[in-house]
Amino acid sequence: MLDAILAPWSWYVSGVLIAMSMFLLFYFGKRLGISSNLETMCAIGGAGKWNDFFKMDIKKKSWNLLFVLGLVIGGFIASHYLTPDKTIALNNQTVTDLKELGFNNAGASYLPEELYSLASLDFKNVMILLVAGFCVGFGARYAGGCTSGHAIVGISNLELPSLISVIGFFIGGLLMTWVLFPLIF
Fold first, then answer.
1. What pLDDT sits at residue 175?
2. Residues whose CB is less than 8 angstroms from the CB of residue 59 and which lie 6 or more positions away in sequence, other chains included
3. Among 40, 68, 102, 147, which is least packed, fewest CB within 10 Å?
4. 74-104 burial string, b = 16+ CB within 10 Å, else e?
5. Domain contains 52
6. Number of domains in the chain
7. Range of the domain at 53
8. Is residue 157 part of a domain?
9. Are 127 and 135 in contact (CB under 8 A)?
């Protein structure tokens, strides 16, 4: 019984749950987006004193902060108690390509030790993480939402700007993977 719970859920179970969640959010007039929580946290922190963009009714957005809290708690429970094997299945060619770039334990865990362990915190890795974080934050703000907001909610609502944003996300991901990533490492 426990093995059935710990086994990864099939795509069609997760897909139906996501679709039901989207329907409920749409029904209640809510929009899901993770990056919008940063705006809410900035508003809570008092950013509205310096910029009118952050002047908002925080109580109307508090449900979204609870959603993020649920994501963090659910992720912690899933990774620490419901994951029987920390390794991930990667294509053999991907493992070979990553080894050529210096990632020796590709697939051993979700986050590569070469970037995310305390032992790897050198100037280059810190700069990569800072620049990447800035680019993701700026891109999400400039695009009017993050990948989850546009891909799941925007496309579900048949919004053309979301479709264009998702196409841009994929193009950016391909450029990063095939052009920039090999140059950096």
1. 93
2. none
3. 102
4. eeeeeeeeeeeeeeeeeeeeebebbeeeebe
5. yes
6. 1
7. 1-84
8. no
9. no
